[in-house]
Amino acid sequence: MKNYYLCFSLLLCSLSLFSQEKIEVPQKSYEAHAIPKGQKIEVDAYLDEGAWQEIPWGGGDFTVNQPNNGEIPQKQTKFKIIYDDNYLYVGYLCLDESPDKVVRFMSRRDNFPGDWVEINIDSYADKNTAFSFTISASGVKGDEFISNNGNNWDDSWNPIWYAKTRLHEEGWMAEIKIPLSQIRFSKEENQLWGFNITRRDFREDERSTFQHVPINASGWVSNFAELRGIKGVKPKRKIELQPYVVGGLRANEASASESTETIGNIGLDGKIGVTPNLTLDFTVNPDFGQVEADPSALNIDGFQVFFREQRPFFIENANLFDFAVSRIEAGGPHDNDNLFYSRRIGQSPSGSFTASDTSIVDYPTATSILGAAKFSGKTRNGLSVGVLESVTQAEYVSVTDGENTSLQEVEPLANWFVGRLSQDLGNGASQIGATFTSTKRFLDGTPLLDQFHDEAISGGVNLLHTWKDRQWQFKANLVGSRVSGTTKKILETQRSFEHYFQRPDADHLSIDTSATSLSGHGGRLTIANYGGRDNISFETGVTWRSPKLELNDLGFMNTADQIHHFLWAGYRFPKPFSIFRRLRINYNHYSAWDFGGSNLYRSINMNTHAGFTNFWSLSTGASWEFRDISTKALFGGPKFRNPVGIFNWINVGTDQRKKFVVYANFGRFYGLGQDKDALSNYNMSLNVNFQPSNRLSFRFGPRFRKQNRVIQNIGRFNFEGEDRYVTGRIIQETLSMSIRASYNFTPNLTLEYWGQPFISKGNYSEFKYITDPLANRFTDRFALYTPEQMSINDNGDVSIDEDRDGFSDYSFGNPDFNLIQWRSNMVLRFEYIPGSELFLVWSQSSSSFGDPSDQLLNSLEDNLFSNALRNVFLLKLTYRFVR
After folding, report:
1. 25-228 adopts what CATH topology?
2. Residue 420 burial (CB < 10 Å; 0-12/13-18/19+)?
């Protein structure tokens, strides 16, 4: 621990030489003007109506936000804001001495290509949340809901609004029209909103804002300018209905279960404004299909893989339901832990079933969602409300043996509920909130009684308190959980990967074979300073998961029984200097214990992120591990002392303004001292972006990782009454290539393609069993099997004759593997009117297994399309009725 604080003290001393006083910035204001009664505004980017002509331009005095924070931008921006009873209009004049050089790249919505300008509107006037509307010079729209004072930008929010752009002799112009029904505000006669306007100058890689926000400011929304002059407008109670129809074909090519299946569905999504600020979202016979497939992943260390949500219903307003248990600036293995992980609803069925090797099995790929509803919003008094309710149906697998077909239940009928309340205090400077989740499965009379928890509930309270102009922050999250089920199911939970109560050296844990429930707790306590008098920021605190905490029914949790201490400190250089356009240095340190008091982990990390005057970028860093004791490495066995070492990485990016841009990343872990040969891995990736024209773009992303680990779990066996934890050296190689292509016919008509070949193969050798898992010397932790003790047959199956008596004492199958997968999507998307869309989708997938002894590239070439391809063709049409 002394090493931590010595490094941290030296870092603070060196960075304090660069500290500067906080700059006090006067708050600007702008007066919006009402449109004369009866005058119509056509959104055409000409601003030639009388309402526009009669008012002067605002702006013209923007200030650089990045990179020369506080300086005068190379190109200024002007704007005007007018309104009527139903709409807010914003006109922009983005000055540019060379209009023909304005970068007008096109892309799909929310990709923010080339030059753009945006307005952020804090119509709640809570200094914490805002609605963002972005328009690019090419006419591509982007919209985001901003929360947590600018720390969260949710681009899944898709309001209806209108925009046009054109080139102008002085630069380029844009005109946008925002229905007041798409934002939320109070019933006051005279509105007072916060707002800011940001412009991106792509050629100079510069962002400027109307209201200057210093680089060391402690928030974004809380530093907005004031928008005055809007009078007499009434909040709108939004009513939206969006029926849809889906038709398509699902086909399996040349497989044992070759089949072609038609797909058809109709349904309705809707929104009803219960009050001007609270909305009920509902769906009848929902279509939760995602346009883009999940990338391939193979994880042999036992931890769950976290996939981001891609289904529209769950994406929208996701921030209202988010309750991250311990997301911190320092990062860590627990960043994804959350009380609500929406991918649990509608996930692949997980119940077991009985089938012979010759059976034809028709297994459902997902659990059907019968219906869902959300009630969400935020009141004028700063109370945020979020309620989600969903019901999923029972799912069955069809097993055919000869002429007999049976249906076996593999997922029960279930109800899923999430509730969230949050109250802003002190004009949004502080907050208190609570979240509750519940999963209820109907298991009575089903064969699944011992396979699922019949009920799982979790809850949490959070507190945020800030002071000294939000520079100082105290955060507290406290969570609890309870799961119930049969004694068999609760025993399984106690013995599961996340818990491992059976670990022989875990004196603080014990298995209760009679338990029918399990209750636990967790949380986070942090204190932080963001900016203030200088450009040093830091956050420190503790996060924990008790041994009995269980969140994985409706949440996400990788492991319990851990306590983490962390510290993050960063210094951001406020101005460009020398060859740097921007520069930031970060320091982190980490420690971890289990609830028995054993110190599991210690490490420090330093990293830096730089941008240069030639517009290239560089990020690099190193982590030094002092201690790494794993409670998972032996999959239920005793703690094991992992090799320690240094992981370093570097990421280089070329000038992002060019049509051809490359980002290259290389990382390497190598052991130190007597651990130097125990573990080594490296990974490299390349992201190549090519934009041959404004409409066409390509992206290629090859990634390769090679890992050489001396200790990889194989299994636990019994030998003469003693447990044998058998491991081996694994050399695992993983290669994938992400391929993307996009063509924009117009800002509202795009054709996109994504494909990913993937291969991961592992070869085991040097089989051994663990003798002293915590020994200081690495070679004292295990005993290698001699050739006389081990025999391997032609299939790679291994038999161990430990006592050399000529008889096998235990055996295990060939652990080598070689998985090859293909995933792809092609999507034609047409937003034929704002909010209404037509999708044509072709998705393709396959999986196969190759010979682990083959070379990686040869195996990929031979097996990628050797198995049946699963093709899905879909047409989806939606129409959005708005009142």
Report:
1. Immunoglobulin-like (2.60.40)
2. buried
